[in-house]
Amino acid sequence: MLSTALDMGGKILAKSGMVTTTAFIFVAGMQAAPVSADTLTYTNGRFGFQITLPAGTAADGETMRTLDWRLTGSGDATDGAVFEADDGHIELLAFGQQFWQDSWQQVYQMAAQALKEDGSTITYQRITDKWFVYSGKTKTGDTYYQRTQRAQNCLKDPITITATLTYADSDKWIGSLIVPLMASLEGC
Q: Fewest C-beta atoms under 10 Å: which of 14, 43, 134, 158?
């Protein structure tokens, strides 16, 4: 299993195998976040949210798979970051936004509209007072799972945090990691 330390521009500083100690990740807009052999935690400095990416193994029938996440982009205004694993077949987008809409229902409807405008289909949706999810297929046929939740930044301002996991049909085994991944999404 590999652990990667990145500098402010996302350049790899160090890689090591079978780590038992922690390293730190530094990316533009991110605060230092500990990395262990089994997880990678992204902490957004602007909105004060975090999400933990599983780096351990997941069952794939008889085969065990290892996710080696790498940062592939970050927002210009440090709103979030994009990570990929499994040679680009798995992508995670995590970002925060100020909560400026009139109602939570409006945020829910705007997210559905954005997915449809992007060519995605929605096959599952659920809304609660604190979060909502959409899942379905992208216009290219990949599967996506998107969760948006209410939170507060470190100044106690209302924000929304969104994480979208997209993966190829050949990577359906990742489904067992969706619940812990999305449950790790939290505000300040």
A: 14
φ, ψ at 183 (rounded to 5°)? -70, -20
Tell me whether residue 65 is in a domain: yes
Please write down the long-range contacts of 9-18, taking CB distance under 8 Å and 24 or more positions apart.
10/71, 10/74
Domain hosting residue 62, numbered range: 2-183
CATH number at residue 20: 3.40.1000
Q: Which of 73, 53, 51, 23 is nearest to 188 (CA)?
A: 51
Cα(31)–Cα(170) distance, rounded to whole angstroms? 34
In the predicted model, is pLDDT for residue 112 greater than 70? Answer: yes
Average per-residue pLDDT in the chain?
A: 77
Radius of gyration of the chain (CA): 16
How many domains does the chain contain in total? 1
Q: Kindly state the tokens that stand for 101.
A: 């809409």
- The answer as to whether 188 is a domain residue is no
